[in-house]
Amino acid sequence: MSDEEDDIILSELNDEDLVAQMFDDLYDGMKEEIEEGVNILLERGWEPYKILTEALVGGMTIVGHDFRDGILFVPEVLLAANAMKGGMSILKPLLAETGAPRVGKMVIGTVKGDIHDIGKNLVSMMMEGAGFEVVDLGINNAVEAYVEALENEQPDILGMSALLTTTMPYMKVVIDTMVEKGMRDDYIVLVGGAPLNEEFGKAIGADAYCRDAAVAVETAKSFMARKHNQGAVAS
Amino acid sequence: MTNLSDHALTRQGLPASGRGQILLLACGALAREILAIKAANGLDHLDLQCLPAILHNTPDKIVPAVRAAVAKHRDDYDGIFVVYADCGTGGLLQTACEELGVEMVAGPHCYAFFEGVESFASREEVTAFYLTDFLVRQFDAFVWEPLGLAKHPELRDMYFGNYEKLVYQAQTQDAALTAKAEACAERLGLAFERRYTGYGDLDGVLKTLNV
């Protein structure tokens, strides 16, 4: 990093330049700078939801695109996510107070036999950033845990993640159980994880396969829009 | 002379010698083990070509690389056998092999066939991170560097926080390699277990390949 960049004083930047700088800081995984930027924008009277969507999600979207395009790799994405997490931890309680719009609700978890949660955590964070309420079941979830969460939380979306070829078939166990219980059509089912692909998603009866966190957000939004439209037609 | 440096096996793979009736198209991480099995059993009808072992880290590139290699060598041998397990391809390698009319090793990955696919599955070790001889020797190239841990050690627990132990599946008896594997476990903050597997299912699979 150059000396010139070291000299940047965030509080002296106007709003536009500050948000642009936050995009850069997010890209570089600079957590403290992101937290400082969030606090400055709050002091300037920005609504928490506006900071979340314009400064954090906006920056993270660039990170997502560059990851998809092979410009950034997993370590850089994790550092960026960590920085965003820092900003979100400031905003989250404020978002609850200020009644930010809620796009939908998602229950998400890594399937039984699988302890990998990096992708799932990224999806959770980006979904929250996009205005979804996320109930994260964590790792190694048996079908009973998914079903119980669906019944208790009544989400719009179920998200399942797997990193292993040996664990991804378990997603079908969950979906088949949902069918048996007559609850499959009550939820949008999104699946993701490194060894998955679109054909697999179709074969197990998921609504969509999402190749990364950005795609998961876009897919979720699109399904929610359809759901609302159907509701409008029906009423 | 054939270059068998681990670095070359990781980045370039190993070219076929052109001698033999059946081509083994393998992951570079298996080169030494396959050559040892060949030598010990006089399997001179088997030739070996390895794709770069580092494809292990990008499974989506394995299937196109296998397809290209099979297409290139199909006419040069009586048969081709793919010495990869599924290796994170989500079943796509199996599908590709069926389309190409070639066979491959059964199992989810080399950790499974070194230990024996059935025995490996029965353990249900959800929280174990596996290394083989090759992966211990190439730990930095396959784990430490690609995960950015040299620059950002603070990411370690984001990657490995849910794991409990590192299982070193030893193909050979090598005290120095065991010490290195144990050091790898320490670097990852995991408990260490050494499990001697020898060549596992791989030995039997290669011996059954006939013209």
Automatic annotation (TrEMBL), chain A:
Residues 103-234 form the B12-binding domain. GO terms for cellular component: cytosol. GO terms for biological process: homocysteine metabolic process; methylation; tetrahydrofolate metabolic process. GO terms for molecular function: cobalamin binding; metal ion binding; methionine synthase activity. Keywords: Cobalt, Metal-binding, Methyltransferase, Transferase. This is 5-methyltetrahydrofolate--homocysteine methyltransferase. The keyword Transferase applies. Pfam families: B12-binding (PF02310), B12-binding_2 (PF02607). Residues 9-103 form the B12-binding N-terminal domain. It comes from Yoonia litorea. Belongs to the methylamine corrinoid protein family. InterPro entries: Cbl-bd_cap, Cobalamin-bd, Cobalamin-bd_sf, Met_Synthase/Corrinoid, Meth_synthase_dom.
TrEMBL record, chain B:
It comes from the Bacteria. Residues 50-203 form the DUF1638 domain. This is DUF1638 domain-containing protein.
